[in-house]
Design goal:
Elements: H1 2-14, H2 25-30, H3 55-83, H4 107-111, H5 114-131, H6 159-189, E1 192-193, E2 197-198
Helix pairs in contact: 3-6
Length: 199
């Protein structure tokens, strides 16, 4: 009877709440940054901000998060659009390969002619090196790539609206990163996904 009681006590202890570890001062310095919002609050599951982290490191991670979020939004939209049957008109090469003959998802990588893939890589490289960065040094915040040329009314917004719009972009980027990852995984698993259809 004693062994059974001890076993029950030990198994119950496994589900008892454990003492929460103290948060480092570096993390506390970033708890109120843009992006620490409901429902998760400050969220750093990989511990990238643990230890001695300065503002420069945080800004670099935020820049990468914004960039990947923007790319993921385009990728998710591209998946949805092509799976809905919307393609660019015309041909992708001089051999007569039409855009609508290129399959969706991962299969497109092997179907695009090699010269086309090289052009895509060169275009992305040119964007990365010359366009998609704060070239002029006029950026108001990390990820501001207007470079004095694009405005779209941004300067007419008050500070609260600007923060709100930046928070919306962060959330949309985070959702798109999860969305495109989910589509890629489901494509490999096969089956059907609502709205997207057969993968």
């Amino acid at each position: 009877k004693f062994v059974i009681a001890a076993t029950l006590a030990a198994s119950a202890a496994a589900f008892a709440p454990s003492k929460v570890a103290q948060t480092s001062t570096a993390i506390k310095a970033f708890e109120d940054e843009l992006g620490a919002q409901p429902p998760l609050g400050f969220f750093d599951p990989l511990g990238l901000l643990n230890g001695d982290v300065d503002q420069e490191r945080f800004d670099r991670l935020r820049y990468v998060e914004i960039k990947h979020g923007r790319i993921s939004q385009l990728a998710f939209l591209g998946q949805i659009t092509t799976r809905a049957g919307v393609y660019l008109p015309g041909d992708i090469d001089t051999a007569g390969t039409s855009f609508d003959s290129i399959p969706n998802g991962w299969a497109a990588v092997s179907a695009i002619p090699q010269a086309g893939l090289l052009q895509i890589i060169a275009f992305v490289g040119a964007l990365e090196l010359a366009v998609m960065k704060d070239v002029t040094g006029e950026g108001e915040f990390v990820g501001d790539f207007r470079n004095g040329a694009l405005d779209f009314g941004w300067d007419t917004f008050d500070e609260e609206t600007k923060l709100s719009k930046r928070a919306i972009e962060l959330n949309n980027g985070r959702a798109a990163m999860m969305g495109i990852l989910g589509l890629m995984v489901h494509e490999q698993l096969g089956g059907s996904v609502p709205i997207v259809g057969e993968l």
